[in-house]
TrEMBL record:
<feature type="domain" description="Aminoacyl-transfer RNA synthetases class-II family profile">
    <location>
        <begin position="1"/>
        <end position="344"/>
    </location>
</feature>
<keyword id="KW-0436">Ligase</keyword>
<feature type="binding site">
    <location>
        <position position="131"/>
    </location>
    <ligand>
        <name>L-histidine</name>
    </ligand>
</feature>
<comment type="similarity">
    <text>Belongs to the class-II aminoacyl-tRNA synthetase family.</text>
</comment>
<dbReference type="InterPro" id="IPR006195">
    <property type="entry name" value="aa-tRNA-synth_II"/>
</dbReference>
<feature type="binding site">
    <location>
        <position position="113"/>
    </location>
    <ligand>
        <name>L-histidine</name>
    </ligand>
</feature>
<dbReference type="GO" id="GO:0005737">
    <property type="term" value="C:cytoplasm"/>
</dbReference>
<feature type="binding site">
    <location>
        <position position="259"/>
    </location>
    <ligand>
        <name>L-histidine</name>
    </ligand>
</feature>
<dbReference type="InterPro" id="IPR015807">
    <property type="entry name" value="His-tRNA-ligase"/>
</dbReference>
<dbReference type="InterPro" id="IPR004154">
    <property type="entry name" value="Anticodon-bd"/>
</dbReference>
<dbReference type="InterPro" id="IPR004516">
    <property type="entry name" value="HisRS/HisZ"/>
</dbReference>
<keyword id="KW-0067">ATP-binding</keyword>
<keyword id="KW-0648">Protein biosynthesis</keyword>
<keyword id="KW-0030">Aminoacyl-tRNA synthetase</keyword>
<dbReference type="GO" id="GO:0006427">
    <property type="term" value="P:histidyl-tRNA aminoacylation"/>
</dbReference>
<dbReference type="InterPro" id="IPR045864">
    <property type="entry name" value="aa-tRNA-synth_II/BPL/LPL"/>
</dbReference>
<keyword id="KW-0547">Nucleotide-binding</keyword>
């Protein structure tokens, strides 16, 4: 036998028994985005490598070690998008959507990062993201956070997620804080983990993220970012908190939250859960007022977030919040040879008369026992036996109920409607 070929590690098939959950989730995401008047944008999955280097930052984990980058046949360096914000800004600039305008956009689709696969962390994963452009006040930060909060409500998992908030303040304030943090950590360099030592020079804020208990112990006495906030950023942050308070959205302040992408300023936030083990961040985002200009556009304030759909689906499954789904409502079987010729036409009429009814027509010649076994296995509520002159409807799930003989398809539909 020929050797079988397998999917790339960390890249998953979404199989037929999983796709109803995905369709449900995608449907709710679309509905909630529409309720906030966000419009869909679809970007290509491949972009120039420079786009991500210039936006996410050269010394981030994503750019340094996680991108799928290759030269195409023309020798151009291309990268499979590791996230959507950079592409969204690129598209906005390219098509003149951003300058002097307000845009509320959302996107959904696969992203690619060469990370070590584990539960909730994959090399191809899917994000739903929203990006709001052209609004600088904390009301737009509040809007995207409320949108995310409404999603948890719609999915019935508000109790399982916690909102963590921080402000990275202005670039100047952050630069001053970076210097102070570096100076403090240098004095404790021998107590830091190796990664953190390396980050002292390259990306010292990321030391705050370190999982090492020794490093965390050092950080307990480190200067705090909030001590370096500029007045305008403080006011912005307080404005956001007041709006969240008024809307009844709970949050915790996390001074160590700095995010792994370089483009953020002011507000950053993450929704985390304890239900998924190590990969507990289901949604993350923040403000990135400098990015549009950094990528060649006119200065435009912006704020947004992205959520990991795999993590969301895992969380919903762990809470039994995925609605039951029946792939087949009626399994139609012909009783006689004559009925068999008529069966496709009958199934067509049934589909036309009952919108949304899922009708599976038995194909192939088998004895009645086998046909009924198939009907049962399909999960259908009913078997419809098409006879020469009438129809028999069998209740497959509720066996107590008596079978129904119907003289016309209208009578079949009437019975199905009564029982649905
Ligand atoms: P991010 O924190 O890199 O932010 O990713 C957002 C979310 O995508 C994460 O919280 C997680 O749920 C999911 N995610 C990330 N990597 C993986 C992975 N390897 N496997 C499964 N899920 C993953 C961004 O991407 C920013 N673009 C968010 C943003 C939008 N900020 C402003 N606008």
């Amino acid at each position: 036998m020929a050797k079988t070929i397998q999917a790339i590690r960390g890249m998953n098939d979404i199989l037929p028994d999983q796709s109803p959950a995905w369709q449900y989730v995608e449907g709710v995401l679309r509905e909630v985005a529409a309720a906030y008047t966000y419009q869909e944008i679809r970007m290509p999955m491949l972009e120039s490598t420079d786009l991500f280097k210039r936006s996410i930052g050269e010394v981030t984990d994503i750019v340094e070690k996680e991108m799928y980058t290759f030269d195409d046949r023309n020798g151009d360096s291309l990268t499979l998008r590791p996230e959507g914000t950079a592409s969204c800004v690129r598209a906005g600039n390219e098509h003149g959507l951003l300058y002097n305008q307000i845009q509320r956009l959302w996107y959904m689709g696969p992203m690619f990062r060469h990370e070590r696969p584990q539960k909730g962390r994959y090399r191809q994963f899917h994000q739903f993201g929203v990006e709001a452009f052209g609004m600088e006040g904390p009301d737009s930060d509040a809007e995207v956070i409320l949108l995310s909060a409404r999603l948890w409500q719609a999915f019935g998992i508000s109790e399982q997620v916690e909102l963590q908030l921080n402000s990275l303040a202005s670039n100047e304030a952050r630069a001053r804080y970076r210097d102070a943090l570096r100076e403090f950590l240098r004095a404790h360099e021998s107590e830091l983990d190796e990664d953190s030592k390396r980050r002292l020079d390259t990306n010292v804020l990321r030391v705050l993220d370190s999982k090492s208990p020794e490093t965390q112990a050092v950080l307990a006495n480190a200067p705090k970012l909030s001590e370096y906030w500029d007045d305008a950023s403080r006011e912005h942050f307080e404005g956001l908190c007041k709006r969240l308070d008024a809307a009844g959205v709970k949050y915790v302040l996390n001074e160590r939250l700095v995010r792994g992408l370089d483009y953020y300023n002011r507000t950053v936030f993450e929704w985390v859960t304890t239900e998924l083990g190590a990969q507990g961040t289901v949604c993350a985002g923040g403000r990135y007022d400098g990015l549009v200009e950094q990528l060649g556009g006119k200065a435009t304030p912006a704020v947004g977030f992205a959520m990991g759909i795999e993590r969301l689906v895992l969380l919903l499954a762990s809470q039994n919040k995925i609605p039951a789904h029946n792939a087949v409502d009626v399994y139609a079987i012909a009783l006689t040879e004559a009925a068999e010729l008529n069966a496709p036409a009958v199934a067509e009429k049934l589909r036309s008369q009952s919108q949304g009814l899922k009708v599976q027509l038995h194909c192939g010649q088998q004895n009645m026992k086998k046909k009924l076994a198939r009907a049962d296995k399909s999960g259908a509520e009913f078997a419809l036996i098409i006879r020469d002159n009438d129809f028999e409807l069998k209740h497959l799930r509720d066996r107590e109920q008596e079978d129904v003989i119907a003289s016309s398809l209208d009578a079949v539909v009437a019975h199905l409607t009564q029982n649905s």
